[in-house]
Amino acid sequence: MKNLWNKAILPIASISLASVMVVNTIPETLVQANSTVQSQVQIKNHVLPLGTPNLHEQRTSMNPAPGVTYTKINRGETSSKDFFTVDVAFVETHEQAKSLLANLKKDGFKNARIIREQNRAMDDREKDPLGYIVRVGQYQLEADATEMRKKLSEKGYTGHRNVYTGEDGEKTTGPWVVNVLEVDQDRFQGQLVPELANDAVTGKETLTQMADRNDGIAGVNAGYFVVGEKDGTPGDLAGIFASNGQLVSEAINGRSALILSSVEEKADIASVSTSIQATSSDGAVREVDGLNRKPGLIRNCGGVGGDTNTERPKHDFTCKDESELIQYTSVFGEKTELGDGVEVVVNHAGKVVGIRNHRGGDIPSSGSVLAGTGEAAVWLRDHAQQGMKIQVKSEIVGDGKLMELDQTTSMINGGPRLLENGKISINAVEEGFHWEEDPGFYYRFGERRNPRTLAGIKENGNLLFVTIDGRAPGWSVGANFEESAKIMKSLGAVDAINLDGGGSTTMTVGDDRVTRPSDAAGERPIADGILIVE
After folding, report:
1. In the prediction, which pLDDT does 264 show?
2. Pairing of strands 342-346, 368-372
3. Where are the alpha helices (DSSP H) in 428-505?
4. Are 501 and 183 in contact (CB under 8 A)?
5. How far is residue 409's CA from residue 429's CA, in Å, rounded to a whole number?
6. Cis peptide leading into 439, omega within 30 of 0?
7. What is the pTM of this model?
8. Kind of pairing, strands 512-513 and 2-3?
9. Which residue stretches of 90-232 are H helix?
10. Model confidence over 466-511: pLDDT tens digits?
11. Which pLDDT score is estimated for 534?
């Protein structure tokens, strides 16, 4: 697949905000491929709830397949009031902010200032301000903000970052670039397929490559995942993933997930938890901590069995447990994770056919491997001896009810929930997007505008997959959690969820990527996507 934006992109740091021009079109390759293209400026009552109602908005739609509609929405324009600046720190109290401000001014940074961040997560019980931002400078060019950061570093300040005020979450005129896929399951005769990168847990792949490999009509990136080895197995789904009736990755217990069923069943969004147990033929029972991942590292937390620092969901954080039992199936890859411990190989009937005094062995095409560390390794030595049987059973609970996982059911991790029964209901604290020890995390992740990938369900059962480009001043400023919820509601969703965003946000339509990557390196390799295929 080709990069649609190669000819249009200029290095953001090298341009003045006042000189940016945005072209609002669907690529010619898509237009030529479909004769049902329509372009119109939407009337006031149907515009996206972004910025003031009188902003210019253009929508261009096409049908890449019967029952599938793709719409590109361009809204707003670059604001003359927005600029680049440097966030020196986000602190919890006004006293901390004043102390930092005094030090900055003493060191010659006379244009430093304090900004009060009042907004908290919708389900946060605290009512005081979230914190205080200490900023320096006001620039039309990002390169000038970068130069200010060098000066701050020379004075010993650390942790500072360039920011664009149009991404603050406060009033702006944009602009925004929003891509919408709507699937009418009564008319669409194909399938919605959760796809693993390279058809395995290990490793990553771009959505463009996934869609190319599967002849996708369209697709979006999907759930959160492990990026680097220090946080576990790169490519491991950091939350639940199930496809074709197979549970591939355990849930972050209590976090929302998108649930897709056959065309006869309406999709759903639910707060899910998993319970997995191994039972030996001698009657001993042991909790299985996880599926198809590196023992000891639990990305986004929400696990079981004494994990530290918490068993509650905690986003972009890796909890630890020195004593874990992990089950590997062939979908993981050819071999288990290398390391100390014990591995037991069981065949398709659950019979123990091999024992290893180390981790990192072959995974059979049928059957599985149980890998134990710490106390779990001792349990395997005692209760999974040659010739014995080990049965592993999983239960999935969604919104407090036991869920059946059949051949037509798929589950994709995400969070937080955005809409429930037609109402904005953002449970960011409950789902681990607020760190009590660092309120700046929620400010950056939930209150500031970022690229977003969203999924929603309309009252009639139609599915919505939406991307919002971001971190691209002059092109698209992105959206925060509340704006994301309002966008989905305005598009007709009654239930909606936030999927993985930021540099992962990607949508393909036919042979084209219709989103603009926010990573400087280009399109980010991801762990899983949702493909629309024939």
Report:
1. 58
2. antiparallel
3. 439-442, 481-490
4. no
5. 28
6. no
7. 0.91
8. parallel
9. 94-106, 142-154, 207-213
10. 999 999 999 999 999 999 999 999 999 999 999 999 999 999 999 9
11. 92
Closest CA to 502 of 468, 455, 456, 465: 468
Tell which residue, 157, 165, 116, has the closest CA to residue 137. Answer: 165
pLDDT number for residue 46: 73
Q: What rounded mean pLDDT belongs to the chain? A: 92
- Look up residue 240 and give its two tokens: 């639940």
- Give pLDDT tens digits for 326-379: 999 999 999 999 999 999 999 999 999 999 999 999 999 999 999 999 999 999
* Cα of 271 vs its chain's centroid, Å: 16
Beta strands in 165-323 (DSSP E): 176-183, 191-196, 218-221, 241-243, 246-249, 255-260, 268-280, 285-287, 290-291, 297-301, 313-320
* Alpha-carbon gap, residue 485 to 451, rounded angstroms: 14
What is the distance between the alpha carbons of residues 195 and 216, in angstroms, rounded to a whole number? 11
pLDDT at 263 (0 to 100):
52
CA 514/CA 469 separation, integer angstroms: 10
- At residue 209, the 3 state secondary structure works out as helix
Give burial (CB, 10 Å; 0-12/13-18/19+) of 28.
Answer: exposed
Look at residue 168 and give its three-state secondary structure.
coil
Q: CA-to-CA distance for 384 and 282, rounded, in angstroms?
A: 9
Q: How far apart are CA 217 and CA 454, in angstroms?
A: 18
Distance CA 298, CA 302 (A): 8
Round to whole Å and give the CA distance between 466 and 179. 6
Rounded to whole angstroms, how far apart are CA atoms 394 and 247? Answer: 8
At 471 the three-state DSSP class reads coil
Count how many residues are written for the chain: 534
The set of residues, in sequence order, having a beta carbon less than 8 Å from that of 508 and lying 6+ positions away, is: 1, 207, 208, 211, 216, 218, 219, 220, 514
CA distance between the termini of the chain: 18
What does the block give as tokens for 145?
């903000």
Q: What is the pLDDT averaged over residues 76-83? A: 96
pLDDT of residue 239: 98
Q: Model confidence over 451-464: pLDDT tens digits?
A: 999 999 999 999 99
Q: Are 414 and 497 in contact (CB under 8 A)?
A: yes
Dmax over CA atoms of the chain, in Å, equals 75
The pLDDT, as a whole number, for residue 181 is 98
